[in-house]
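Lab notebook, bench 4. Still working through the backlog of constructs that have no structural model yet. Next entry is a single chain of 320 residues. Request: give me the structure tokens for it.
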Amino acid sequence: MFAAYAARIDPDQPLDGLELGERPEPEKRPGWTTIEVKAASLNHHDLWSLRGVGLGAESLPMILGCDAAGVDAEGNEVVLHSVIGQSGHGVGPREPRSILTERYQGTFAERVTVPEWNVLPKPKELSFEEAACLPTAWLTAYRMLFTNAGVRPGDAVLVQGAGGGVATAAIVLASAAGLRVYATSRDAAKRERAVELGAAAAFEPGARLPQRVDAVIETVGAATWSHSVKSLRPGGTLVISGATSGPSPKDAELNRIFFLELKVVGSTMGSKDELEDLLSFCATTGVRPVIDTVLPLDRAREGFARMAQGDLFGKVVLTV
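Model written out:
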């Protein structure tokens, strides 16, 4: 079957390790099921895998891709939950949870095999392309906002780095839930787009906000960390799920964190129940993932390059 896969690890030139071509059919395992992939979306996790983060050379070649929507053996339209082993279903009793492609072949292929427990019904209101955007970036944003930040309608939220998959999702979801959303971006066009998606206002990174916020959604890391901490009200919550600009900020703002009793919460992906809630939220409210580009699987390299350059707003989706 045709697939996009990591053939080599290259920390400096990750796309040099990306290959497109024929790969073996998915291995059958007890408690697992094979899905015909209709659409799959890219995440920064896929680029990090090509750099060797979370993926060792001993696991190559590895078909990339965590997110997918498709059709099961009975003809049902389904969405895949990307965290393997979260419940223990389909894996060994001592196997720690992992994101698909850290241990098992991924979704950038004509077919993928996952534990039966990881399959959810796709709402008829969502297209395959839309549904394929949800299991990683959008689920991460949903958990950051509603589980880990614990925000409520009427609260104010700052989303750093408008344009990225998680940040874009957070703007749309927070706005739809009745939150006052502020966003930042270095790019004027992305700031304008953030407002179109529901942000009350968008600013250059580091700008003073009209008010202190209840929570910050942080995926940028070192470049925006100090601003994120300074933007919180006393007792506010900073939720971080990524550090695309680096993990080591120049100023950690520790004095401000303890004096104002701020909370710093790490967040990774989300649960199957949260994905089910997110699917229902989108189907009921009319909220839809923001898609930057849709490409056929045989043009996956273009999608990877676009994501690596950062010149996008929303998700890149590959169709099979």
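Notes after review: Residues 134-148 form the longest helix (15 residues). The longest strand covers residues 32-41. Flag for follow-up if needed.
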